[in-house]
Amino acid sequence: MTTSLSKDRFRGVLLGAAIGDAMGMPFQFLHPQLIHELVPLPPRTFLRAPQGHLNARLEKGQYTDETQLMTLVTETILEKGDADAAEIALGLVRLYETRAWITPGRSLLAACRHLRKGTPWHEAGGFRDGSKPLAFVPPLALRHHPDGERMARHCASLARMILVEPRVSAGCACFGLLLQNILMCRDSRELPDAVQTTADRMQASHPEFRDMLLWVLSLLDVEVAEGLQELGTGYSILESLFAALFVFLKFPDDFTAAVSHVVHAGDSSDTTGFVAGAFGGAFNGFDGIPENLFSGLKDAQFFLDLADRLYSLSSSAAS
Description:
Elements: H1 7-24, H2 32-38, H3 65-80, H4 85-97, H5 106-116, H6 137-143, H7 148-159, H8 166-183, H9 191-203, H10 207-218, H11 224-231, H12 237-250, H13 255-263, H14 269-284, H15 291-296, H16 300-318
Protein backbone atom coordinates (compact mmCIF):
# COMPACT_ATOMS: atom_id res chain seq x y z
CA MET A 1 0.00 0.00 0.00
CA THR A 2 0.98 3.63 -0.45
CA THR A 3 0.21 6.58 1.84
CA SER A 4 0.65 9.50 -0.58
CA LEU A 5 -2.00 10.51 -3.09
CA SER A 6 -1.35 11.74 -6.60
CA LYS A 7 -3.33 14.30 -8.55
CA ASP A 8 -4.46 11.39 -10.72
CA ARG A 9 -6.23 9.79 -7.71
CA PHE A 10 -7.96 13.08 -6.77
CA ARG A 11 -9.17 13.40 -10.34
CA GLY A 12 -10.21 9.77 -10.39
CA VAL A 13 -12.42 10.02 -7.31
CA LEU A 14 -14.32 13.17 -8.27
CA LEU A 15 -14.60 12.43 -12.01
CA GLY A 16 -15.36 8.77 -11.35
CA ALA A 17 -18.23 9.63 -9.02
CA ALA A 18 -19.72 12.18 -11.44
CA ILE A 19 -19.44 9.76 -14.38
CA GLY A 20 -21.05 6.96 -12.36
CA ASP A 21 -23.91 9.27 -11.42
CA ALA A 22 -24.43 10.26 -15.08
CA MET A 23 -24.31 6.62 -16.24
CA GLY A 24 -26.92 5.72 -13.65
CA MET A 25 -29.24 8.63 -14.39
CA PRO A 26 -31.26 6.92 -17.21
CA PHE A 27 -31.95 3.83 -15.08
CA GLN A 28 -32.97 5.56 -11.86
CA PHE A 29 -36.22 4.20 -10.36
CA LEU A 30 -36.52 1.43 -12.99
CA HIS A 31 -36.99 -2.28 -12.26
CA PRO A 32 -34.15 -4.52 -13.53
CA GLN A 33 -36.52 -6.55 -15.71
CA LEU A 34 -37.66 -3.44 -17.58
CA ILE A 35 -34.08 -2.24 -17.97
CA HIS A 36 -33.02 -5.58 -19.47
CA GLU A 37 -35.86 -5.32 -21.98
CA LEU A 38 -34.87 -1.78 -22.97
CA VAL A 39 -31.08 -2.22 -22.78
CA PRO A 40 -30.17 -5.93 -22.85
CA LEU A 41 -26.49 -5.50 -21.91
CA PRO A 42 -24.80 -3.25 -19.32
CA PRO A 43 -24.03 0.02 -21.12
CA ARG A 44 -20.43 1.08 -21.70
CA THR A 45 -21.32 4.68 -22.53
CA PHE A 46 -23.82 7.36 -21.58
CA LEU A 47 -27.46 6.89 -22.55
CA ARG A 48 -30.65 8.92 -22.36
CA ALA A 49 -33.52 7.91 -20.12
CA PRO A 50 -36.43 6.19 -21.91
CA GLN A 51 -39.47 8.15 -23.05
CA GLY A 52 -41.83 8.89 -20.17
CA HIS A 53 -39.08 8.63 -17.56
CA LEU A 54 -38.66 11.45 -15.03
CA ASN A 55 -35.19 12.08 -16.48
CA ALA A 56 -36.20 11.83 -20.15
CA ARG A 57 -35.57 15.54 -20.69
CA LEU A 58 -31.93 15.23 -19.60
CA GLU A 59 -29.12 14.86 -22.13
CA LYS A 60 -26.62 12.02 -22.25
CA GLY A 61 -23.86 12.50 -19.70
CA GLN A 62 -25.98 14.62 -17.35
CA TYR A 63 -25.23 14.06 -13.66
CA THR A 64 -27.85 14.47 -10.91
CA ASP A 65 -28.11 15.79 -7.37
CA GLU A 66 -25.45 13.39 -6.02
CA THR A 67 -22.79 15.17 -8.03
CA GLN A 68 -24.23 18.56 -7.09
CA LEU A 69 -23.89 17.68 -3.40
CA MET A 70 -20.31 16.50 -3.93
CA THR A 71 -19.52 19.73 -5.79
CA LEU A 72 -21.01 21.87 -3.02
CA VAL A 73 -18.85 20.18 -0.38
CA THR A 74 -15.73 20.45 -2.55
CA GLU A 75 -16.28 24.15 -3.28
CA THR A 76 -16.88 24.83 0.42
CA ILE A 77 -13.62 23.07 1.33
CA LEU A 78 -11.78 25.16 -1.26
CA GLU A 79 -13.30 28.38 0.08
CA LYS A 80 -13.18 27.68 3.82
CA GLY A 81 -10.36 25.14 4.07
CA ASP A 82 -12.71 22.45 5.35
CA ALA A 83 -16.31 21.26 5.16
CA ASP A 84 -18.06 24.15 6.92
CA ALA A 85 -21.51 22.71 7.65
CA ALA A 86 -23.27 26.07 7.95
CA GLU A 87 -21.93 27.16 4.57
CA ILE A 88 -22.97 23.88 2.97
CA ALA A 89 -26.46 24.31 4.42
CA LEU A 90 -26.68 27.76 2.83
CA GLY A 91 -25.62 26.23 -0.47
CA LEU A 92 -28.38 23.63 -0.25
CA VAL A 93 -30.95 26.36 0.28
CA ARG A 94 -29.59 28.46 -2.61
CA LEU A 95 -29.95 25.53 -5.00
CA TYR A 96 -33.47 24.93 -3.67
CA GLU A 97 -34.56 28.55 -4.05
CA THR A 98 -33.16 28.84 -7.56
CA ARG A 99 -34.69 25.50 -8.59
CA ALA A 100 -31.23 24.35 -9.64
CA TRP A 101 -31.36 20.84 -8.18
CA ILE A 102 -31.25 18.12 -10.85
CA THR A 103 -33.81 15.37 -10.11
CA PRO A 104 -33.52 15.83 -6.33
CA GLY A 105 -34.67 13.09 -3.98
CA ARG A 106 -37.49 13.65 -1.49
CA SER A 107 -35.16 13.51 1.51
CA LEU A 108 -33.00 16.26 0.03
CA LEU A 109 -35.95 18.51 -0.77
CA ALA A 110 -37.38 18.03 2.72
CA ALA A 111 -34.04 18.96 4.28
CA CYS A 112 -33.85 22.08 2.12
CA ARG A 113 -37.32 23.14 3.24
CA HIS A 114 -36.38 22.68 6.90
CA LEU A 115 -33.14 24.62 6.47
CA ARG A 116 -34.99 27.42 4.70
CA LYS A 117 -37.34 27.71 7.69
CA GLY A 118 -34.37 28.10 10.04
CA THR A 119 -33.96 24.57 11.38
CA PRO A 120 -30.35 24.03 12.56
CA TRP A 121 -28.38 22.06 9.98
CA HIS A 122 -27.71 19.14 12.33
CA GLU A 123 -31.47 18.72 12.94
CA ALA A 124 -32.71 19.28 9.38
CA GLY A 125 -32.65 15.68 8.22
CA GLY A 126 -35.53 13.23 8.18
CA PHE A 127 -35.89 10.18 10.41
CA ARG A 128 -35.54 7.41 7.85
CA ASP A 129 -32.98 5.29 6.06
CA GLY A 130 -31.51 6.45 2.76
CA SER A 131 -28.32 6.84 0.79
CA LYS A 132 -28.36 10.45 -0.42
CA PRO A 133 -25.77 11.72 2.14
CA LEU A 134 -23.17 9.37 0.63
CA ALA A 135 -22.65 12.15 -1.92
CA PHE A 136 -20.99 14.31 0.75
CA VAL A 137 -18.18 11.81 1.28
CA PRO A 138 -15.66 11.73 -1.64
CA PRO A 139 -14.16 15.23 -1.16
CA LEU A 140 -13.92 14.63 2.60
CA ALA A 141 -12.07 11.35 2.06
CA LEU A 142 -9.57 13.19 -0.14
CA ARG A 143 -9.22 16.30 2.01
CA HIS A 144 -8.55 14.35 5.21
CA HIS A 145 -6.51 11.50 3.83
CA PRO A 146 -5.10 9.63 5.73
CA ASP A 147 -6.75 11.00 8.91
CA GLY A 148 -9.58 8.48 9.05
CA GLU A 149 -10.92 9.56 12.43
CA ARG A 150 -11.37 13.19 11.44
CA MET A 151 -12.81 12.26 8.06
CA ALA A 152 -15.30 9.82 9.58
CA ARG A 153 -16.52 12.44 12.07
CA HIS A 154 -17.10 14.95 9.28
CA CYS A 155 -18.96 12.40 7.13
CA ALA A 156 -21.19 11.25 9.98
CA SER A 157 -21.93 14.81 11.04
CA LEU A 158 -22.80 16.16 7.60
CA ALA A 159 -25.10 13.22 6.92
CA ARG A 160 -27.50 14.62 9.54
CA MET A 161 -28.19 17.59 7.28
CA ILE A 162 -30.27 15.29 5.08
CA LEU A 163 -31.03 12.22 7.23
CA VAL A 164 -30.54 11.95 11.00
CA GLU A 165 -30.95 8.16 11.14
CA PRO A 166 -27.78 6.85 12.91
CA ARG A 167 -27.36 4.07 10.35
CA VAL A 168 -26.99 6.68 7.61
CA SER A 169 -24.23 8.50 9.50
CA ALA A 170 -22.45 5.19 10.07
CA GLY A 171 -22.77 4.33 6.37
CA CYS A 172 -21.21 7.63 5.34
CA ALA A 173 -18.30 7.07 7.70
CA CYS A 174 -17.91 3.53 6.32
CA PHE A 175 -17.88 4.84 2.73
CA GLY A 176 -15.19 7.36 3.62
CA LEU A 177 -13.01 4.73 5.30
CA LEU A 178 -13.40 2.40 2.33
CA LEU A 179 -12.36 5.17 -0.05
CA GLN A 180 -9.32 6.05 2.03
CA ASN A 181 -8.21 2.44 2.28
CA ILE A 182 -8.79 1.78 -1.42
CA LEU A 183 -6.81 4.91 -2.28
CA MET A 184 -3.77 3.31 -0.63
CA CYS A 185 -3.96 0.10 -2.69
CA ARG A 186 -1.44 -0.43 -5.45
CA ASP A 187 -3.01 -3.51 -7.05
CA SER A 188 -6.16 -5.58 -6.76
CA ARG A 189 -4.55 -8.15 -4.47
CA GLU A 190 -4.58 -5.54 -1.70
CA LEU A 191 -8.29 -4.73 -2.00
CA PRO A 192 -9.64 -7.53 0.24
CA ASP A 193 -7.31 -6.34 3.00
CA ALA A 194 -8.58 -2.78 2.50
CA VAL A 195 -12.14 -3.99 3.01
CA GLN A 196 -11.12 -6.12 6.01
CA THR A 197 -9.33 -3.13 7.56
CA THR A 198 -12.51 -1.08 7.18
CA ALA A 199 -14.54 -3.90 8.73
CA ASP A 200 -12.20 -3.99 11.71
CA ARG A 201 -12.61 -0.22 12.15
CA MET A 202 -16.41 -0.51 12.09
CA GLN A 203 -16.64 -3.49 14.45
CA ALA A 204 -16.70 -1.67 17.78
CA SER A 205 -19.10 1.13 16.91
CA HIS A 206 -21.23 -0.37 14.12
CA PRO A 207 -20.97 -4.17 13.95
CA GLU A 208 -23.78 -4.29 11.37
CA PHE A 209 -21.48 -2.60 8.87
CA ARG A 210 -18.63 -4.96 9.71
CA ASP A 211 -20.93 -7.88 8.95
CA MET A 212 -22.02 -6.32 5.65
CA LEU A 213 -18.41 -5.76 4.56
CA LEU A 214 -17.53 -9.37 5.31
CA TRP A 215 -20.67 -10.52 3.49
CA VAL A 216 -19.60 -8.64 0.39
CA LEU A 217 -16.22 -10.38 0.49
CA SER A 218 -17.97 -13.75 0.82
CA LEU A 219 -20.05 -13.08 -2.33
CA LEU A 220 -17.16 -12.41 -4.70
CA ASP A 221 -17.25 -15.93 -6.14
CA VAL A 222 -20.88 -15.64 -7.30
CA GLU A 223 -22.13 -14.09 -10.53
CA VAL A 224 -22.81 -10.36 -10.57
CA ALA A 225 -26.58 -10.70 -10.99
CA GLU A 226 -26.83 -13.16 -8.11
CA GLY A 227 -24.71 -10.99 -5.83
CA LEU A 228 -26.77 -7.89 -6.56
CA GLN A 229 -29.97 -9.82 -5.89
CA GLU A 230 -28.56 -10.85 -2.53
CA LEU A 231 -27.43 -7.35 -1.59
CA GLY A 232 -30.20 -5.30 -3.22
CA THR A 233 -29.83 -2.05 -5.14
CA GLY A 234 -32.52 0.04 -3.45
CA TYR A 235 -32.42 3.31 -1.56
CA SER A 236 -31.33 1.95 1.83
CA ILE A 237 -27.76 2.91 2.62
CA LEU A 238 -27.00 -0.76 3.25
CA GLU A 239 -28.10 -1.63 -0.28
CA SER A 240 -26.64 1.30 -2.22
CA LEU A 241 -23.24 1.29 -0.54
CA PHE A 242 -22.58 -2.43 -0.56
CA ALA A 243 -24.00 -3.15 -4.02
CA ALA A 244 -21.56 -0.57 -5.37
CA LEU A 245 -18.68 -2.04 -3.39
CA PHE A 246 -19.52 -5.54 -4.63
CA VAL A 247 -19.43 -4.66 -8.34
CA PHE A 248 -16.24 -2.65 -7.88
CA LEU A 249 -14.54 -5.64 -6.26
CA LYS A 250 -15.80 -7.86 -9.10
CA PHE A 251 -14.26 -5.54 -11.73
CA PRO A 252 -11.53 -3.59 -9.90
CA ASP A 253 -9.41 -2.97 -13.00
CA ASP A 254 -12.30 -2.11 -15.35
CA PHE A 255 -13.95 1.17 -14.37
CA THR A 256 -16.67 0.95 -17.01
CA ALA A 257 -17.64 -2.64 -16.23
CA ALA A 258 -18.07 -1.95 -12.52
CA VAL A 259 -20.25 1.11 -13.03
CA SER A 260 -22.26 -0.33 -15.92
CA HIS A 261 -23.17 -3.53 -14.09
CA VAL A 262 -24.47 -1.78 -11.00
CA VAL A 263 -26.48 0.89 -12.86
CA HIS A 264 -27.94 -1.81 -15.11
CA ALA A 265 -29.66 -3.16 -11.97
CA GLY A 266 -31.75 0.03 -11.74
CA ASP A 267 -33.43 1.23 -8.53
CA SER A 268 -31.07 3.74 -6.90
CA SER A 269 -28.78 3.66 -9.93
CA ASP A 270 -27.59 7.27 -9.75
CA THR A 271 -26.33 6.65 -6.21
CA THR A 272 -24.93 3.17 -6.82
CA GLY A 273 -23.24 4.43 -9.98
CA PHE A 274 -21.85 7.43 -8.08
CA VAL A 275 -20.40 5.22 -5.33
CA ALA A 276 -19.02 2.56 -7.68
CA GLY A 277 -17.49 5.32 -9.82
CA ALA A 278 -15.80 6.84 -6.77
CA PHE A 279 -14.35 3.43 -5.84
CA GLY A 280 -13.18 2.78 -9.39
CA GLY A 281 -11.66 6.25 -9.71
CA ALA A 282 -9.94 5.93 -6.34
CA PHE A 283 -8.29 2.66 -7.36
CA ASN A 284 -7.58 3.22 -11.06
CA GLY A 285 -7.08 6.98 -11.02
CA PHE A 286 -8.20 9.35 -13.73
CA ASP A 287 -5.93 7.60 -16.23
CA GLY A 288 -8.01 4.45 -15.74
CA ILE A 289 -11.24 6.15 -16.80
CA PRO A 290 -11.97 5.76 -20.54
CA GLU A 291 -11.65 8.97 -22.51
CA ASN A 292 -15.12 8.63 -24.04
CA LEU A 293 -16.68 8.78 -20.57
CA PHE A 294 -14.70 11.84 -19.59
CA SER A 295 -15.42 13.70 -22.82
CA GLY A 296 -19.11 12.74 -22.68
CA LEU A 297 -19.67 13.97 -19.12
CA LYS A 298 -21.42 17.31 -18.83
CA ASP A 299 -19.08 19.94 -17.36
CA ALA A 300 -16.16 17.49 -17.47
CA GLN A 301 -13.47 20.18 -17.53
CA PHE A 302 -15.07 21.91 -14.54
CA PHE A 303 -14.79 18.73 -12.47
CA LEU A 304 -11.21 18.18 -13.61
CA ASP A 305 -10.30 21.70 -12.49
CA LEU A 306 -12.18 21.18 -9.21
CA ALA A 307 -10.17 18.03 -8.49
CA ASP A 308 -6.90 19.80 -9.29
CA ARG A 309 -7.74 22.66 -6.94
CA LEU A 310 -8.61 20.23 -4.15
CA TYR A 311 -5.33 18.40 -4.75
CA SER A 312 -3.39 21.67 -4.56
CA LEU A 313 -5.11 22.66 -1.32
CA SER A 314 -4.53 19.26 0.29
CA SER A 315 -0.91 19.12 -0.87
CA SER A 316 -0.24 22.58 0.57
CA ALA A 317 -1.83 21.64 3.87
CA ALA A 318 0.19 18.42 4.06
CA SER A 319 3.45 20.25 3.49
